[in-house]
Design a protein that fits this description.
This protein is α/β, with parallel strands linked by helices. The protein folds into two domains: 267 residues, Spore Coat Polysaccharide Biosynthesis Protein SpsA, Chain A (Alpha-Beta Complex); 32 residues, no CATH class. It contains twelve helices and 14 strands. Helix 3 links the parallel strand 3 and strand 4. It starts with a strand and ends in a 6-residue tail after the last strand.
């Protein structure tokens, strides 16, 4: 069942607002534990979209509270968008193995049912809750996935993972462009749970292993700009989606510090994160007061109270 958060709007009001807009359909999956991260991801998505992008955002609901839903709806103060919640029957996932259950829940598998929820859509973007979007997703959404189940970026840990799986390539499932039409044509949701039961001994990385194994040979590889997985892809030029993989989310919160205060959540900061934050402030202040560095092969740059001076560098003769 899909709960439409826009249902109170007068008929036709959204159609008027969406006129001449490019609709981009984006889906997330979250439970209450990840609601604050979901909000941060959506804030980044709304803050960095293009003017003509109209976002239709769907959240597969693994136990969000009414307060969570109100806070997410309040993000319309940043930019107008559609918001719908999809109620999930978790019993459908009872056969799915969950490892490290302290950090991973059955919500990790919800994306396997996406094609059932959107019979009217041919494709949709799926994003994990621990991503920061730095630019429009228009080009990503318009990427052709004809003949493929989905398009994705190789996982940064693929080489190690491939040692245990009978595959030649391995993709990260945190950012996907899903070909919903192909999933329906192949009756994926009717077959996948039986497949999981038969292959559960292979599954260590939950839905990601399922998607890589089941869809093997029909996955389109994308450049890393669409899923730059920290701390591994820090130097990806022009990265649009930064994905803060890993168990702990301090780096995610720190990188999204500008957006955190728009989420409506009071996000608890670890001691390590607070320390990094104040170290960054101290370093920035100190460098504004005084800094001497090599600008290039021939010049040094001296900063004093924000003013920059340049001098020649002495060459070293050996």
């Amino acid at each position: 069942m899909i709960q439409d958060i826009n249902a109170a709007n007068p008929p036709g009001s959204e159609a008027i607002k969406q006129e001449n807009k490019i609709k981009i359909h984006v889906c997330f999956s979250s439970d209450k534990i990840y609601a604050k991260f979901l909000s941060l991801a959506i804030v980044s998505l709304l803050s960095n979209k293009q003017k003509n992008d109209y976002l239709c955002i769907y959240v597969m609901d693994g136990g969000l509270s009414e307060d969570d839903k109100e806070k997410l709806s309040a993000l319309k103060s940043i930019a107008e968008f559609d918001l719908k919640f999809i109620n999930i029957d978790s019993k459908r996932f009872k056969s799915c193995p969950v490892k490290n259950s302290k950090y991973i829940t059955l919500a990790a598998y919800y994306r396997l049912l996406i094609s059932d929820f959107f019979p009217e859509l041919d494709k949709i973007i799926y994003l994990d809750c621990d991503v920061l979007v730095k630019d429009s997703l228009k080009d990503f959404y318009e990427t052709s996935v004809d003949g493929y189940y989905f398009a994705a970026v190789q996982d940064v840990d693929a080489q190690r993972i491939l040692e245990r799986l009978p595959l030649k390539e391995y993709y990260n499932s945190g950012v996907l462009l899903l070909n919903l039409e192909k999933f329906r044509q192949e009756k994926f949701t009717e077959k996948v749970f039986e497949w999981i039961e038969e292959n559960r001994s292979l599954l260590q990385l939950h839905d990601q292993d399922v998607l890589n194994l089941y869809c093997n040979g029909f996955i389109k590889q994308l450049p890393a700009i669409w899923n730059a997985q920290q701390k591994y892809h820090k130097k990806v030029d022009g990265a649009v989606v930064m994905h803060y993989v890993g168990r702990f989310k301090d780096d995610f919160i720190f990188a999204g510090m500008r957006e955190v205060f728009k989420t409506g959540y009071s996000i608890e900061l670890s001691k390590a994160l607070v320390k990094r934050f104040f170290c960054r402030i101290f370093k920035t202040t100190f460098q504004w007061i005084f800094r001497l560095k090599n600008k290039n092969d021939t010049q040094k740059e001296l900063t004093v109270l924000g003013m920059k001076f340049y001098m020649k560098r002495k060459s070293l003769k050996i």
